[in-house]
Amino acid sequence: MSRTVAVVGATGVVGREMLRTLEQRNFPATSVLALASPRSAGMRIPFRGGELEVAAVTPEAFEGVRFALFSAGAAASRELAPVAASRGAIVIDNSSAWRMDPDVPLVVPEVNMGAAAIRPRGIIANPNCSTIQMVVALKPLHDAARIVHIVVSTYQATSGKGHAAMEELITQTTEVGSGKDPTVKIFPARILGNLLMDWKPGEQDYSEEELKMVHETRNIMGDQSIGVSPTTVRVPVVTSHSESVHVQFARPMFADEAKRLLKAAPGIVLMDAPYAPGNHPQPLAIAGTDPVFVGRVRNDLAVNGAINLWVVADNLRKGAALNAVQIAEQLLTTEPAS
């Protein structure tokens, strides 16, 4: 069976990160295809010491593809992911198109990799970036004491909104430093020196991003009873999302136990030194790394047996590209080519 990997949306910020991740992890692909819209065809992207020429994505492009890693937006995924699957590819989709489809498993390898084995549509969904890092951090705690309620506030980087959003923050920094009025095109208001809630409205006066964290957490954890109270915020950071998380359990859990569980869990780096100014996971330092970093694990002062923690991860890596590549890696092991 082929080990050809196609990256759909290869010229976007996550698509490029997927290619970098495949290269850095030495993914055993026989060939890698860079696919994008016709307007990007002919572009060249560095890969493994050479270059990949971007080809227009067509149904025929998926012939012989083993894994199709999609990061081309929900509309493209709804149209093309079933096409790729019908040609025999295992689709791993980073958009929101399939996350709530009951026939599409929503997978984080450290949490529920077994769910990837049953995929009636031939599609596996990557969760939302803010959900991924939170459930990686909470899975070992949930297994030990069953989570009852999560209160989470996010501090989400501009790269979560795409390359143009990152560039707008950088441009505003230059403009304001030069005494100019900042350009505002991508965000609803200035992001430099500001905080925004810039996602589409959802139900009950929550944003779509906040509701994703509710439904996706329950889905991935396999427990619809978990309460999730989210507030999602965009901050003037280029890369890496941060989260302040308060967790209550079915039985009391205290910080010492939580630290022991986190230290032994896959995909997590625990920073467990005592509090001191600056001694915590920082988005700037974590950008470009793979793990989910957890720090400031402490007992809640008001709710006995609850804990608080600070969670940071690169949203382009673990929050998107790495999660997809890890799924493909593990499927190669559990479903080897015949």
Structure description:
The structure is a single chain. This protein has 338 residues and is α/β, with parallel strands linked by helices. It has helices spanning 13-24, 74-86, 109-112, 129-145, 163-177, 208-221, 255-264, 283-286, 317-334; strands at residues 4-8, 31-36, 44-47, 50-53, 55-56, 65-70, 90-93, 123-125, 147-155, 227-231, 241-249, 268-271, 292-299, 307-313. α1 (13-24) crosses α9. It is globular, with a radius of gyration of 20 Å. The mean pLDDT is 96.
Short structural description:
The protein is an alpha/beta fold and about 350 residues long. It has helices at about 15-25, 75-85, 110, 130-145, 165-175, 210-220, 255-265, 285, 315-335, and strands at about 5-10, 30-35, 45, 50-55, 55, 65-70, 90-95, 125, 145-155, 225-230, 240-250, 270, 290-300, 305-315. A hairpin with a 2-residue loop joins strand 3 (about 45) and strand 4.
Q: Main sheet: which strands, in order across?
A: 5-2-1-6-7-8
Q: Give me the number of helical elements.
A: 9
Spell the H/E element sequence: EHEEEEEHEHEHEHHEEHEHEEH
Question: Which range does the strand content fall in?
Answer: 15-25%
Residue share in helix: 25-40%
Determine the mean pLDDT: 96
Q: Any low-confidence stretches, pLDDT <50, length ≥5?
A: none
